[in-house]
Structure formats: C-alpha cells, structure tokens
Amino acid sequence: MFAAETPEALVMGAPQLVSPPVAVARISTVLEREDFTIGEVAEAIGQDPALAARLLKIVNSSYYGLSGRIETITRAVGMVGADALYGLALTTSVIHGFRNIPACLVNMNDFWLNSLYCGVIARLLAKEASVLHSERLFVAGLLHRIGALIIYMRLPDKAREILLVAAGDDRLIPGLEKELLGFTYAEIGAALAKAWKMPSALREGIRWHLEPERAEDYRLEASLLYLANQLKTVSLLGFPIQDVLRAIPDEVASAIRLDETQIINVMSKATEKLSDTAAVFMPDVYVRH
Question: Is residue 165 a part of any domain in this protein?
Fold first, then answer.
C-alpha cells in the first residue's frame, strides 16, 4: 500500500537520503558564509580523499580543458570556482551514493548516461544562450531525475507498474506518476534538493523542468533544463529533433531565445561530448562490465 502522501513524506521516510553526503554538507556549510576563503573550501573537500581525487581528475580532464596540470584542491578551487566545484562534488557524490537500486527496475549505467546526456545538452544550451556560470546547468541536468531513484528505492512495485506501462517511452512517465502517485519525480527531486540545502537555482530547475512556464524564479534555468530533457529524450528514442522544436511552448522559446540552427548545433556538439564526459564522471562500476 502506498503510504507517502507527499513528495516530502516520501523523502523524509528514507533517513539515509534526508542528509546529503558528509563531504557535500561540509562544503555547503562553508559556502553559506559570505566571508569563506578558498582555503576553507579546499580543506572541506580535502577531508574526503576519494572525493578530492575524483575532483582533481575532472578538473584535469578534457571536460574543462585547462592549460597546465592542477595538482592541488586549493588550486582547483581558484581556477574553477567554489560554486562550480561544489556542483561537481555534489554530482560525483550522488552518482556514487545511489547504488542499491533493484536491477530489475533500472540499469544504473543507462540511467546515469541518460542523465549525463541531459547535463551536457543543458550546459551547451546555456553557453549558446550566453548564460553566466553554465556549469550549474550541467549539474541540474545530471540531477534532474534524481527523484525517480527515490521512487525506485521506496516504491519499487509502483515504479515497476509505471515503467511497464511507459514501455520505454520516458515522455509518458510524468503523467503516469501523477496518476498513480499523485506527484512526479520532479517534485520528489525538489524535495530532496531542499533537504540537502542545494542552491535555489538548482532546486527550482529540478522542480519545474517539466513545466517551466510555472516557475516564478529561475524560469530561464527551468526552461533550459526542460529543453535539454526533451532533446535528450527524443534523441535517445530516435525521433527527429524537429519534433521537439515544433512543440516548444512560447514561454520557453521566449526565455531561452535560441533559434533552430543554434539548437541543432548544440545537439551535434552534445553527441561528441557525451562519451568524453561519461569517461570522466561515470564510476567504473557503471561504465564497465
């Protein structure tokens, strides 16, 4: 029997999920202060050697394309920025943290590859739209379906029913979730983001990416994430990109201000960048068999 009546209840009913990874919480606490220093951020990251090693690998990869090798976390914070490094710490921690999902429900390799693809597209769209700090759109894209993982973990029977009816068409899932659960994975993801004290732009992007016209704040972020999710889905299903372009709501089009040529150009770049990005962000447990 389905007991959780709200997304918040579903999240709070999973004590292991209510608190963010220790290292991420430590970094977030530092960043909450206006007078934090680079050294304090580096120290917070350095207390988790495995996380520090992963972040240095990312910063020194083709994902950033920095000239010269970055040897220390302090240097990485100075080069990349504290907020960007927090986002990277969050994404790598989440990928490592959600491992106990029933294999009969979802292939985690495919789940994270799809999420990475959305993140890559969102970041490129943000750059094309001249959005400052486009890195945050990559993080939002990678985490946009994190609420689905909570459904898989907490409500496996309902999740199985939804996936069977959707039959591989992700476009049907939000409507099925609304019908069977009363809310969508986006609402659950936003509840988790709030529990983890994620930045407001990230929380709002996750919450409203299915219906960006309803976003009161951060409508641009929600609109970019909406478009990235739609483009990712039709691309993976093998449908023409024009299917998405014809269906873009006026509110989204006016927010992002990108024409068809720009969007198609983004998709050609995204395809090239996905494999390189996956090689950097995907743990071996997911990308190798």
Answer: yes
